[in-house]
Each structure stands twice: as C-alpha cells, then as structure tokens.
Amino acid sequence: MQEIESVLKENRRFEPPAEFQSKARVQSFAEYERLYRRSIEDPEAFWGEVARELPWMRPFDRVLDWSGAPVARWFEGGEINASAVCLDQHLETERRTKTAILWEGEPGDRRSYTYEEAHVEVCRLANALKARGIGRGDRVALYMPMVPELTFAVLACARIGAIHSVVFGGFSAQSLRDRIEDGSCSAVITADGGWRRGKVLPLKAVVDEALDGLGGVHTVLVVRRCENEVAWQPERDVWYHELVASQSSDCPPEPMGSEDTLFLLYTSGSTGKPKGIRHTTGGYLVGTYLTARYVFDLREEDVYWCTADVGWITGHSYIVYGPMANGATQVLYEGAPNQPHPGRFWEIVERYGVSILYTAPTAIRAFMRWGDEHVEKFDRSSLRLLGTVGEPINPEAWMWYREVVGGGRCPIVDTWWQTETGAIMITPQPGAVATKPGSCTLPFFGVDALVVDEEGNEKGPNEGGYLAVRKPWPSMLRGIWGDDERFVETYWSKWPGMYFAGDGARRDEDGYFWIMGRVDDVLNVSGHRLSTMEIESALVSHPSVVEAAVVARPDELTGEAVCAFVTIAPGVTAEEALGDRLKEHVAAEIGKLARPAQIRFTDALPKTRSGKIMRRLLRDIAADREIVGDTTTLEDFSVLARLRGNED
Ligand code: WT7
C-alpha cells in the first residue's frame, strides 16, 4: 500500500460553470444528492423507472434478483433487443432523419448516416449473417478498423441474437486466435485493411494467420476498405459489400431475454490468460443509456465524439450502445490523432462542431507535448463538455485540457469504470458536482462505492485502500466466458458480498475518490490494461529467454510503460540487438501495445526464499527509485546491486 499512501496534494476546485449548470440535467449538488440517495436506498424503484424508458418487447417481471450472487439477474422476464433500442425506437420520432454517424477516414474520406440509413445497413447485414447460418447465441469475432461497418456489425449481431466478441485491430494474430478459440466463434467480420498513420494495417492477412489450422470458423466477412491485396478462401471468405447488396432491409429484431448474453470482451487479468468478460442485454443497456445521458448531459442538438476504438469497452458503451440508445449524433474517426498533422482532432472538432469530447489522458498528454498552437489553430467554441477515461489523469494534464482545449469554459468529467463494470461508475455530474483536477469525484446513481482495507473495513478520509463496490448494478459483468470459478475468485472473494475492482484509491474529506492505480499484476499503458504475466509468457516463449519479470514504470506520455527484466540462456549475448528482437517478439505475440519500452538483462531476478519474484523491488529499480521497504526475505542480496547496474 506504499504507493497508495503517497497522498496527492491538490487543492484546486472548480464549480460547474453557471452557463452549463443552468441548462444541465442535474443542476445542483442538492439534486445530485437527492437522486443518489434515492438510488441507493431504493435501487429497485430507481432502476425500474429508468428501465421503463427503454422500448421493451415484453415488460420485465422484477427488477433485480440477487439470490444467485454474485451473478445478478436484472429485469428478469423482460425481452428487449439492443439494436432496436439503438435504432428502431428512433424511427418513429423526429430522429428518423437525424444524423447518427459522421464518419471520417484517416485519408480524409467522409460518410454520414441518419438513423434511418443506419437501420437499413444493420438490417441488411443482419440478414447477410443469417444467410450464412449465423443466429442466436453464436459467437462472432469482429476484427475491424474504425469504419461505420464496425458499428453496423456490432448492432447486426445484437439484432439476430448473436454474441459479438470485438477484438481491437491492434492485437496480433496469436491474440486474435486465442480469443476466437476461447469464445468458439463460428464467424469473423473483418476488413481487407484499415488506415493507421498513413499505412494500411493488413487486417485480413492477420485473420488468415489467426485461423490457420483452427477449426470452427465457417465464415469470414470482409469489408473492402483499403483495396489492398488479400488472400482468399472461396468457401470461407465473403465480401461484405457483395453479400449485403442482395439482402432485404427488413429484419425484425430478435426478442432477447434481459439476461441473454449480448457480448464478450476480453481483458487482461493478473494471470496470463485474457478473460472473456460477459455482459448481458437488459441491464447493460439500462446502464449505458443512463450514464451516457447524465454524465455527458446529452442533448438532441449535441455533436458527441468519443475518440476510443470500438474494440475497447469505452467504444462498446460510449460509441455504440449508450449514445445510440439516446439517439445522439456522433463523430467516428478511423485514424491516428496526428495524421497528417498534430491538429487533426481539433480540425475534426471544428469541422463537425463537436460539443462533447470524450478522450484519454494519454492522448491529452500527447497533445500537450505537440504544442498548444496545433489546438489553437482551430475553432473549439462548439465544445461544451470534456471527458476523460482509462487511467488516472495527472492534474497538470487536467488543467491543460480545461484551459487550452476547453478555454476554461467546459466542465471536465473524469470517469472511472472498467470493462467489467460495463458503464461509468464514479464521475462528476457535470452541472452539479464541483471538480478537482485528478479526482473522478463521486459515484454515479446506484453505485455504492467505497474504499476498504485488507479485511474489508471502510477506510477513513484520505486513507489509502482498495476500491470496492457494495451493491449490484445493472451493467455489471455476469461472468467470465467458460470460467465461472475465476469470476467468483477474481471479483467476489476478497471480501464477502463486495466487488473487488483491483484499484487502489482514497476518498478525501469531501468524499471524493482519487484512484491510485492497480494493485494487482496489471499494467495500464495508454489506458489499456495489460497483464504482466501475459507479457512474461510472451518473453519466455523466445528461445533466448530463460526467465522474465515484467513491471510497470511511470511514463510521462503513456502513464505506465512496460519494463522487462530478463535472464537469458547460456551462450546468448546480452546486447541491444537482442533487446530489440525481444521487443518485436512481444509485439508480434500480443500486439504493439504490449511492446516493452525497456528490456533489462540480468543474471538473476530478486526472489524470496520461497521462490517468488519480488516485483516490488523491480518496480523501484525500473522507476529509478530508492528501494524502500522490507528486503529481508530476499534470497540473494547481491542480485539487487547487480540489477541496478544493468540497462539496455
Ligand atoms: C482500469 C480499467 C473503462 C474504460 C477504459 C479502461 C483504470 C479507468 C480511470 C479513471 C483512474 C482509471 C483503472 C481501471 N481507469 N478509468 N478515470 N481514473 N483510473 O477499461 O481496460 O477495463 O481498465 O482502468 O485502473 O481498473 P479497462
């Protein structure tokens, strides 16, 4: 808990801007408190009311059944379809002709879709999937660039009751294969390629490699995006545009049980194997619908832009389901933030008149570094709300976001949540809660969050501890695909009846939450979770490596960076070229995002007498910190001295 104890000194406080407040959904702290209290005291009444705002095909019989804890059952008896929530319900209103998606490709090509047009696209694709024999309960992997077809593919799966498993396009063939295999997917939707930093990412080729020698996948549907050469297996591979063209645009949404699985999304845990986080339909929709509406204060006239990739939970909840359930107009951008120039994001903000921007601290720090002039060159007066997610934001970046991007006018919502929570959990209500740079402030409605010690006792103000959640919430995960035991063990076994988030945190004297980072063997690089074990296994799979230990090292840009300590096989030389090869090896095994920033060769790793690697010491060494704390269990003291000297 040492890191957690290091209390951040931050006394600045910003009231919601009066102009924003006067039009906000929640306009005062007292109103937030009243709503929050009600949601905690009578969660069933609160969530029942919210849920009834959605178009159910069959009304639910009861709000919550927690008798099977920790597997919650929300809105049991109800039938609903996620694609109908996002599309069909709007067709009977003025939103029929409202723009749903304003898309821009990295090379500068543009397309837009109204809700009605998006509905046609989704129905055609849904029928195309059916024509390939895909239906209720089947798993479909999506490995795609950020094109509108990705959103359509997600919704088309939901429409026919197929379970989507989106894999971020930056993952390697091996990672994709593992996920396809774990979920027993029978189809893959991909593209020939996607544009990133002026180059084509050859997605179809990665899919081919991932599927090589793997049974079970009968269909690979390929969007034509970059017109790059692709290999073709005529039995298995189908062009998206060819198959979709001949399909009817009439495809009634499948009535799904509230607790039917909507999707799987893999995330890293403290052991090597990624976890297929399982989310269900009704509760997830209720959670994402309400949080999108309140946290972003979504209005009919807003132009909303979440810069995440649909391949992460942020994209699932706050590009696809939450905003579309609210009938929002949103920007979707394919490429890198600095392509072809470092002002690309702000150019997009100006072009579409973006009013709500939701991005990540790592991106904010990159913009800071590139210089204010690239931001200031473009008109940002349309912005009215800014958001961040993915990792703790340092107060300096928070202030820069507020002053330079938002011109001091826009509230910032620092939103804490996880793949597992499905929706935002701790966040300011932008019109009601004063913000403090670096704090995600207070819990959202229905979220009973607290900070506890090892025994599960609540900590006092400004005492560091573990972040936990006491009550079930609608968008919570229902399990880990194929591993019920790991689900209970990972999240529900530390303290009886409490959800363990894996983050360290403290609450200040106002009850505000300050997240201090992970307490397990999970790294957070650029807001993406990586498991130290996963990277270690990748390193050890290289013939030159005998043993590896991976720890996080603080990084100015990415928050944390991967630092690997490796011992190598006899006869192998510890040289820079080997370090580079190992970095490439990890990138190829897992994906570029896992590439170590640093490889340190060592002849031994610091271990306890029982053989456990003392990561705490390695973290200090990686960060160039003085080694603090107990080293008495260390087996060989000379290892430490030798480690300090070795850097690549
Ligand atoms: C972990 C979850 C939720 C979407 C993106 C990441 C860290 C997330 C914040 C925040 C401090 C944050 C936590 C969390 N995290 N948001 N606002 N402040 N830390 O989803 O990959 O499931 O990672 O990201 O450590 O546990 P994820």
How many strands in all?
Answer: 30
Which small compounds were modeled alongside the protein?
5'-O-[(S)-butoxy(hydroxy)phosphoryl]adenosine
Largest sheet, described in full? 8 strands, mixed
| Span of the ends, CA to CA | 30 Å
Query: How many DSSP H or I helices?
Result: 21
CATH architecture of the largest domain: 3-Layer(aba) Sandwich
Q: Write the CATH fold name of the largest domain.
A: Rossmann fold
The radius of gyration is 24 Å
Please tell me about this protein's structure.
The chain has 648 residues and is of the alpha/beta class. It is built from 21 helices and 30 strands. Helix 5 crosses helix 6 and helix 5 (82-91) packs across helix 7. The longest helix has 17 residues, at 115-131. 53% of the residues are buried. The chain binds 5'-O-[(S)-butoxy(hydroxy)phosphoryl]adenosine (WT7). Residues 267, 313-314, 389-392, 414-419, 440, 501-503, 515, 518, 524, 527-529 line the site of 5'-O-[(S)-butoxy(hydroxy)phosphoryl]adenosine.
